[in-house]
Design brief:
Elements: E1 7-11, E2 16-17, E3 20-21, H1 23-35, E4 40-43, H2 55-69, E5 74-78, H3 84-97, E6 101-105, H4 114-127, E7 132-136, H5 138-141, H6 147-153, E8 159-164, H7 169-179, E9 184-187, H8 193-198, E10 203-206, H9 213-224, H10 228-244, H11 252-260, H12 277-289
Parallel strand pairs: 1-4, 1-10, 4-5, 5-6, 6-7, 7-8, 8-9, 9-10
Antiparallel strand pairs: 2-3
Helix pairs in contact: 1-2, 3-4, 6-7, 9-10, 10-12, 11-12
Length: 293
């Protein structure tokens, strides 16, 4: 399927405090995304730190996000797992809560075959009726959705797209060639947002848009208007900011950036650590240069 969403989706952080999830702060962040022009948010994606959250926390956050969004933008729940049975159960649960769609990262650590990837997504898609985005991020998972596998995934009726974060632009182009018109391609790599949009990507699923949704939406709009010279100027502005948002493993820097903007985002849960001071200085300079502080 195509057309689930076009534009930008923010892979939103989860703010924590001593009691757990800071819901009041999450609401402020969600409202900022709506005001900044985001078309969707991914809740409990990698950036949201679901691997260190309890089941009760994850359920409560999804329910809260759906309630606060109230149809003003799409809520996409991260439900992927290295256990297919658990991924299916989490997907069914998210649908029951009322999310608009789900995004499921490939199985990780187990390192399944391409046939295993296909079976994983088939079982998820057969269990739910809402749109499903497959997420390819080999640097984290050690599993890669090859273009020929993406082509087969595109034939599953409720596969709404593939989020590509392989970092291999040649592979991304071949995947786009094989799925074009059957399902959508989304950039999952802020550094490659512009070229992925230029080859026909339907949108961006971005980390940096936690702090700069307006700039990411502007980049998307300019590319879709074929205003590539202006889009390149925006990309040139964004690139140092994106580099600063990945000086350490995501979401360490972007969570620090949210704190710099005045949110009470807290710090990442262990084993992730707070951003090192020298990298905070890099981040502050990049945010200042982008006009964010």
């Amino acid at each position: 399927m195509t057309g689930f969403f076009n534009g930008i989706a923010t892979a939103i952080i989860t703010p924590f405090n001593d009691e757990g999830v800071n819901f009041a702060e999450f609401e402020k962040m969600l409202e900022r995304q709506i005001k900044g022009g985001a078309d969707a948010v991914v809740v409990l994606g990698t950036t949201g730190e679901p691997s260190t959250m309890t089941s009760d926390e994850k359920t409560a956050l999804l329910k809260f996000a759906v309630k606060i969004a109230d149809g003003r933008l799409k809520i996409i729940a991260g439900t992927g797992c290295n256990d297919t049975k658990k991924a299916v159960a989490q997907s069914v649960h998210a649908q029951h809560i009322g999310v608009d769609g789900i995004i499921a990262v490939t199985p990780y650590y187990n390192r399944c075959t391409q046939n295993g990837i296909l079976q994983y997504y088939r079982e998820i898609c057969e269990a739910v009726t809402i749109p499903v985005i497959a997420y390819n991020v080999p640097p984290r998972t050690a599993v890669n959705i090859l273009p020929e596998t993406a082509e087969k995934l595109a034939d599953i009726p409720n596969i709404a797209g593939i989020k590509e974060a392989s970092g291999n632009m040649a592979q991304v182009c071949e995947t786009m060639r094989r799925i074009r018109g059957k399902t959508d391609l989304y950039s999952g790599d802020d550094f490659l947002n512009l070229p992925i949009l230029a080859i026909g990507g339907a949108g961006l699923i971005s980390v940096t848009s936690n702090i700069a949704p307006e700039l990411l939406k502007k980049l998307y709009t300019l590319v879709k208007q074929n205003s590539l010279e202006e889009a390149n100027a925006v990309q040139d502005l964004l690139l140092p900011l994106e580099e600063a948002c990945f000086t350490e493993v995501n979401p360490i820097p972007v969570k620090a950036a949210c704190n710099i903007l005045g949110y009470s985002a807290g710090v990442p849960r262990p084993p992730l650590t707070e951003l090192e001071e020298n990298n905070k200085n890099i981040l502050r300079r990049a945010m200042a240069n982008a006009g964010l502080v």
